[in-house]
Amino acid sequence: MSTQTTVIAGNVEASAAFGQATMAFDGRTLTVSTGVVLREWQITNHGLATTRVLYGNAKQWSEASPCETDCDWSLGNLGEGHLRSLSAQQDNDEGFTDDHLQVVAVFEYPTSHVAVRYVVWAYPNAPGLRTQLQLKALPGYEPAGGPWTPQIVETFTAAPLMRHRTAFGLMQGIRTTSRSGLLEEQSISPLTSTINWANGVVMGNADGGAILIKESNKHTRLSENSDLATGGFDFVGNQVAVTGAGNLPSDLSTSDFCTCWATWLVLFEGNDIDAQLAIKQFDRRRFPVDPARDIYILANTWGTEDLRPECLHAAREENVLRELESVADLGIDVLQIDDGWQTPEWTTAATAKQVQRGKEAADRFGNYPVYPEGWSRVQTRAKELGVKLGLWAAWTAPIDALESNCDAGGFEYFKLDFAHLDTKARYDGLASKARQLIEHSGYLASVNWDVTETAPRMGYFTGREYGNIYLANRKTATVRSDVQYVPHCVLRDAWHLSKYVNLNKFQVTVQNVDNVREGAPTDAGLHSHSYAVAISLMSSPIFFQETHYYEGAARDEIRNLLAIYKQHREAMYQGYVFPIGDEPDNASWTGFQNHNTETGEGYLTIFRERLNDSPQEKIQLNFLDGKQLEFVDLLTNKTWTQTVGPEGEIELTIPDSPGFLFLKYESK
Q: What is the rounded distance in angstroms from the CA atom of residue 340 to the CA atom of residue 323?
């Protein structure tokens, strides 16, 4: 990496490089390249205006037709802006993202007394660029009331051939009874249109195209009165403006820059599957996986019972010690202690009467001891068994309390819950708390987020540099249809999710199918334990339950499958997961393909759902048309060779339904 390069208000040529990522400036034109994607801007009287976007330094996916403001961004009436500095350096956001070349251009707007910092992250060899506006008040700044008008944070003008446009969005606050499922997709009219619910848009033709993704907590059920200016996508002809600043004019200060939501511009060559791959490749650079920290199976004490008193009761020391023995026996890596352990000061409680909101549990079960000696017994036993520990807390827990519990209990997997991030201060405060906790742990800890409610929380494209996303509350011991564990609905959620994000950064629930209550609206009890576990294997599996309720044969079945999975999971985390087969509906052949683009190897989990009456089916795979593959059935060790059809199809057999296959493949 070259030393940091800075240009101050002059036509000074400059360049910088980190690996294949480069920056060049000739005093008028700024060019940033990852080695795969190149973007060029022209300095204007209002900022930066994109003039070219190239894929492979050859294929042009944009036109040079900047918006009316002659700038890629437009926030209120800033007036004319002047370039004050330009710098480039190697960076990794204090260890929270992959190494990249960071380019920073600072403009000052004298009439509005605002400074704008435009930040570009160029990951070497990545298929896209991340851009972000950061705003600062200058002396004399007087904020306007209400939001920025307009609030355009990025602009892209598509090449005329990119006629096909699809918006996609993911739902938060998932309910089993939802008819639409997790993913929403919509074709976009070539005429003027505004999409205010989507996480991203894919634009292209048969040869390839471009993808814009909002790095925000946008989701499809976000209500306007709690929306932290997440905006959307405004289309006028070939031009699309990414809107949503993520802050208000009143959030600016003279002390530091206030960040806006970032934007990913990802390019691809090929078809829809190539577009999905490009998103996931960029996603993994933005939210990289640390194998020592991020590859794990987790159990959580909350999800067995349906009512709050019983769930609080499950967090007591007596039960956690029992759970430690159980998860160690099954081969689960982490036990996370959920709500019920803490006092209002976020210290471990001696009795239930000291537990925050826990009087209902004490009234139900008596005045039972919770953690009479703090974390010492649990921590000691966990170390003896080789089980790591996790801890739940509300998002309001003070950072000093989180750090002291981290130290006292050796906790590495935190879940910060109940967040309501409807202001910039709340969002930044929680992100800062997560960052500080992880840094305090020496980067051993991670922070997982919960998207089970519709309130604005960390979202599908935010917060994953700190940990994983817990997707949905699903329970077997309930008769409530909105949180009922239904196998094909859980499978459908994961299947939808795997289209546009890396599934292994999301926690998909495993429940005890023997624990279904009479009259419950679910067929979970008609599925095997291994089937329920297999649904989660392409994700980050979470046993949202007390596992000591598993008995005899069930334990053997789960222990065997997890042992097989753990032999392969590190290799699985090197691949990218795609949905294959038909959408899960309880009568489909469906599943996931986990493909390593560098080795050509991969894994399949294929499901013949309960109401499907065909023991054989053709499944279409990605990236393998016409190849000869050697398959291994990881459950039976049976091997065979099969040639993939010209459209990627292979024929598979599952004799009984509901049933599944767990396969590995490699090219012959």
A: 15
Q: How many CB atoms lie within 10 A of CB 581?
A: 22
| 446: three-class secondary structure by DSSP | strand
DSSP alpha helix (H) spans, 13-59 = none
CA angle 432–436–438, rounded 5-degree value: 120
Question: Residue 564 and residue 566: Cα distance in Å, rounded?
Answer: 6
In the chain, the amino acid numbered 630 is: E
Identify the weakest region by mean pLDDT among 216-225, 319-328, 423-432: 216-225
Number of H helices, E strands in the chain: 11, 38
CB contact set of 564 (below 8 Å; sequence gap of 6+) = 634, 635, 662
Q: Which helix (H) or strand (E) holds 379?
A: helix 376-385
**Sole residue written with tokens 């050509």:** 600
What's the chain's length in residues?
668
196 token code pair: 């205010």
Q: Which of 333, 330, 374, 368 is nearest to 352 (CA)?
A: 368
DSSP bridge pairs for 415: 392, 448
How far is 198 from 231, CA to CA, in rounded Å? Answer: 9
- For residue 107 the two structure tokens come to 């403009």
Query: What is the distance of C-alpha 463 from the center of its chain?
Result: 7
List helix spans (H) across 337-375. Answer: 359-365
Q: In whole angstroms, what is the distance from residue 224 CA to residue 236 CA?
A: 23
Locus of tokens 């499978």: 491
- Between the CA atoms of 152, 156, 157 and 162, what dihedral angle is there, to the nearest 10 degrees? -130
- Residues 446 and 413: their CA atoms lie apart, in Å, by 5
pLDDT reading at 57 higher than 80 = no
Residue with the bigger pLDDT between 513 and 11: it is 513
Contact 455, 430 (CB under 8 A): no
pLDDT tens, residue by residue, 260-289: 999 999 999 999 999 999 999 999 999 999
Average pLDDT, integer, range 155-171:
90
Report the alpha-carbon distance of residue 70 to residue 179 in Å, rounded: 44
Q: How many CB atoms lie within 10 A of CB 524?
A: 22
What are the tens digits of pLDDT across the range 88-103?
A: 999 999 999 999 999 9
* pLDDT of the residue at 269: 94
φ and ψ at residue 131, rounded to 5 degrees:
-125, 150
Residue 403, Cα to own-chain centre: how many angstroms? 25
Phi, psi of 75 (to 5 degrees): -125, 100
Query: What Å distances lie between residue 267 and 61, 207, 213, 238, 348, CA to CA?
Result: 8, 11, 11, 16, 50
Give dist(CA 219, CA 282) in Å, integer. Answer: 20
Q: Which residue has the tokens 């982490």?
A: 334
